[in-house]
Structures are given as structure tokens and as C-alpha cells.
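Re: the multi-chain job from yesterday

Posting the exact lines I submitted so nobody has to dig through the queue logs.
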Amino acid sequence: MAGAGGGGCPAGSNDFQWCFSQVKGAVDEDVAEADIISTVEFNYSGDLLATGDKGGRVVIFQREQESKSRPHSRGEYNVYSTFQSHEPEFDYLKSLEIEEKINKIRWLPQQNAAHFLLSTNDKTIKLWKISERDKRAEGYNLKDEDGRLRDPFRITALRVPILKPMDLMVEASPRRIFANAHTYHINSISVNSDHETYLSADDLRINLWHLEITDRSFNIVDIKPANMEELTEVITAAEFHPHQCNVFVYSSSKGTIRLCDMRSSALCDRHSKFFEEPEDPSSRSFFSEIISSISDVKFSHSGRYMMTRDYLSVKVWDLNMESRPVETHQVHEYLRSKLCSLYENDCIFDKFECCWNGSDSAIMTGSYNNFFRMFDRNTRRDVTLEASRENSKPRASLKPRKVCTGGKRKKDEISVDSLDFNKKILHTAWHPMENIIAVAATNNLYIFQDKIN
Amino acid sequence: MEFKLEAHRIVSISLGKIYNSRVQRGGIKLHKNLLVSLVLRSARQVYLSDPCPGLYLAGSAGTPAPPTPQPGEPTAQPPAGWGEPPPPAPRAAWPDTEPQPERPAVPDAPRAVDPEPAAAVTGAGDAFRGREEDTAEAAWGRVDRPRVAAAVAVSDVSPEGASVGCPPTREEQPGASPAADCRCAPRPAEAEPSAPPALYPRKRGAAGAGGGHAGCPALCSTPLKKPRRDGGEEDGEEEMETGNVANLISIFGSSFSGLLRKSPGGGREEEEGEESGPEDAEPGQICCDKPVLRDINPWSTAIVAF
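And the result, C-alpha cells for all chains:
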């Protein structure tokens, strides 16, 4: 397969040629669980790239300004700020340990010099302000340069403190903490297009928050049955529409998506639209229900489409058509015959994410063996690429990979049984405007760029 | 036939997952347990739809090694000749009732006595602490066990469990299960009365008397020493190994549409919490009871009271 067709290129004539750019993280074979990356997100401009890990830390990378001396080398991402967002907690009342793993990070649109992001673990959402400090005031009257207080009686003259430059310091401070609103595990947060509210979703409920108000949130979806014995599905992901601030969608473990309009009623238990594809009875198995559970839902940038990821495929839906998706892309169909083994080793419960490119012409999602897949919606071509240290020479092109599903294995192909199911790419992100992608492979973050033709 | 084997294996694996989910960090995950319960239900359906219910897995065939680690549980319980439908796994939903020596290693000696109902109850209880498991267990419990033959007849309440039920005839299973199973069987009928008796098994076990405990003092002792929950779970697993799966599945059989109850991830009170789940374990407790739980509500009450 050749490189995926281009998004953002005129007339779609150029193929993507993905090249390795950078890799962040330890090379060590022994991966500490706390270092496993659990979420990746570009900000609105693409200049900042945030990652969250299982240890509750957030690391933000910033893209360097392109230098005039090397115009062909795009800016690299370097560490901008690192902070501990969440700590492990213990709920004594319920004897529950609350993991510090960062489930999601969502950036707020930038409104001033500082950057804001929301990060969440299973129970608590925090709003962080990341600001730069590159000046320091000097010449105080009441204290020395080293901070010691001066005796007021000894001051004979007054001076006006002046600002002097200092080494850039990036500070992260928690500005809001939104806690105690979720009984179940939070799986999604989504900032509204009004830039004032956001939603948080757990297994059974979705809450609406105002960014300024932490002691109150509104429940807008509640699918908890009166009798828990009758529970048949849970909420797996939720997102606000990118332009219509009254519309959001949420996906379920049954493979359905509901679109809700907050104008219709205060409690959006009744959907406005219901998206479901009828199941193919011929492919029924013990695991049909598990593999139909949707692990991620993302609106396209245009707001006209949405994409859902289930275990074996990615589907693109037109918001105007509820009966079936307009596109279905198989991610790793060769795993269908291995579902029992994948059930045993728990891989069948892996929650893969998916993402759109800036122009909505291509979509990307992860797989096993550190493979990730890209689908070009215009040319209908797809490609499998690998994030590995072996292909980590600067600007080295990524070679398409192929999984051999049976019969004779060709050279350079890898057989299904040789796939490493511990190397899974669950989280990927695409720069909002350029062809730069960030791929999280366990504890390493790979950044690939499209070679300039 | 291979479907039955496959279904059996899947049920074993699923129960193991439910068990393990209780000790996972971060509390029980509702979504994952829901999915596991759906798989369990599918596997059960396949198992039950087998036209030859008598053809249970031969003991040896039984993959005696369910993925779940039975810590310290006496591997002793060999799958033992399945013979007839293996006695229902005593996994009743009662997680923590005493760690009944579920697996009565005792050769099917005629545990047949009465304590069966009680035994059943307890056994089942221990089997799975997980809420989910409980329901499943409960379901299983309904199946009768050899010993419970009589009880079975009497208590044939379980919607489907009984029907599938293990013919009271089987007694020979040297495997542990039988004993355990017995406990489960009459559950539905005896919900109330069983509850209190639930205590007995443990005592009996210790004494070596009572359903099936006799033969396995070691076994019995182990569960007793372990925290209830754990003991139960292991026992449950053990039962599975010895081929109670069929029974378990039958028990599961009926109304199994809901979700497993989620354990608050805490200590004993979880169990209590679970039982009271139906009422509303809202605050932080994720409790989705399997429909089976409905049938065993009396048990809940009893357990809670206990």
C-alpha cells in the first residue's frame, strides 16, 4: 500500500510520505506502569502537545519556531512543562481506590497569554493554567534581592521596582477542581464551542459544567436504570458538536450513538437522533457484543460527520443519516478469528481512539504491534505504519507494513501470530492544521511529519 | 460438541475475570464487567442449547485450568469424572458467606444430607465474591447437586437451573464440586431458610462433616482461613475446574440480562452492599445485579442480616 492519500493537498494529488521526526520517552525495555501514556492531545493551534500518563502526570511539548536557517525542517516539539495533575486517592467511605491515571486531556481555546487545559482521572476534573514567566521584578524596597525583609526604619530612599528578564519559567497551577460529581468512572470530557461550558461523561451519566463554577454541575444524561439488574449498556464516550453548542453525542457499549439537543429538554435522556447499524447475523459469535462496543467517538472538524471506533473497525457517520454509517474501514479484520484468545488476554477490552486530520480527508487509529492505520477518505486507500525505534532515524520515511493473514508469508510481511499484543497504540493525535501526527506507543511518544514534497 | 467445550471454557475464563476484577486497582469497572457478563450469557446459552445435555465434558477433558488462579486452592479437585451434569457449582452469589469449603474434595460421599440447602447456599456464596459472580453463582446454585437430589426435587424452583440440573444421581464425583453444588441447588426454594443454614457449611466443613467437606480437610480449612471473600472466590473457581460449569451455566440460565453487580471494591461490607444493591447502592457503589439476583433476593436479605 502506498502512503495514504493527502489531506490538505490541492486536488489530492500528493500522497502522504510520513517520516519519523521525534520520539519522547525512555528507551528502557522495562516499562514502569506509571509511564504508560494514557492520552495525547494537540491544542487548537497545534503548537502545544499534551500527554497524560498512568502516573497522573501531564507533559506538555511545545513546537519550536521554525528557524530560518533550516527552512525544510519543521519545528520540533520539546518539553514545555511537566506537572503532576492527579494523585492517587482513597475513598474511605466506599473503600475504593481512585487511580491517578489521566483519562483525558482537553485544551481550551486560547484567550490570553496563558494556556488552559482540562485533565481528568476517574473521578475528578481539573482546570490547569499554564503560564510563562520570563520577567522578574527587582528593586523592591521592603526586601532584599534574596528575599530577606529589610528593616523599614533603615530605608532612606524609595525606588520603583523594575522588571528584568529572567530565564523562561513555565508554571502550571490548578485553577479549578471539579470533584464529587461522578459515581462511576469518567471516560470523556469535551469542551463546548461556547468556550464556557464542558461536559464530563461516566459510565451512566453525563454532566454539564460551567468552567467558572466548581460546586455545581447539571446532569444532562442519566441512563442508570432504577433496578441495576436491568442494566444492559453503558456510556463509553461523549463529545460536543464543534460548532453547535447545544448538540452533543454519546456512544454506548452496544455500538449505538445518540445525538442530543440540549434545547429540547433539560434532561437529554431522550435522544434527537439514534445511530445504529444493524448487526450482521452471519458474524455473530460469543464476542459480538464486546467488539461492537464503541471505544471512541469524534466529530469531524466540519461538524457534518462523526467517526466511531469499535474493536475491529472505524465507521464514519453522516449526521443526517441514522440508519448506517457512510464509511466502514476495517482496522485489523484478521483478528476476528482470534477473538477468543484476545478475550483471554484481555486485549479485546482495549479502547482504541481515532482522530481526523485537519481537513477531514483522512482518519487514523491504532492497532497492535505498534501499528497504526490511516485511511484516506477520498482515494479510499489505507496504509499500515509502525512506530518503532528501529525506524527512528531522523526524517526516515516510514515503510508501509503488511500483516499476512494466511498462506504464504511474503518477505517483509508479518504473520498474525507474530504480532505483539502488548505493544498497542491506543492514543493518537493529528495536528489541527498540518500533517504532523503524535502516536503514543506504551511509554513512548512518536511524532511523525509529512515530508515536504 | 465443541461448542459446548468452547462455551465451557469461555465461562471459566469469564468467571475468572469477574473474580479478578474485584482486586483490581481503581475499583470494579462497570463497562468491562458488563461485557464479561454478556459473554457469560452467550456462552451459557450455547451451552444450554446443546441437544445432549448429558454429554458433559469428561472430567479430564475439562480444562481443569481455568485461567483464574486459585490461590492455594487445593488443586486437589480434579475435574473428576463429570459423569452427569456436574453438580452445580456452588457458587452462589454469596460472596462472602463463609468460605465454605466449596470444593468438597470429599468424594462424593453422600453428603446427601440435608445440610445441602445450607451448604448450597454457602458454597455458592463463597464462590464468587464479585457481585457479578454472585449472580452467576446464584444461578449456578440453583442447579442441583447430586446430593441435593432430594432437595432438588423439592426445590425445583429455579427456572431453568433445576431443569438442567444435575440429576441427583450423580454422586460419585470425587471432584469437589458436588458438595459445593449441592449447596447451590435448592437455593431458590429455600432462600430464606437457607440463609441461616449457610453458616453451617462452614462449621461442618471444619468438622469435616457436611456436604463434601469430609473428604478434604485441607480444603476446608483453607477457605476458612481466608477472608471470606477470597475463599469463596477461589472455591468457585475450583468448582469450575471440577466441572461444575455445566451446572453453573444452567443456573445462570434464566434471566441474566442485567449487569453484574459491581463491588465497591472494599471490604466485607461490599458484600453487604451488593446484597443491598438492588435497593440502591448508588453512592459510589456500582451495583448492577444480574437478574439472577432477583431470584435470590431472599438470600440477599438473609445475607445482609447475617
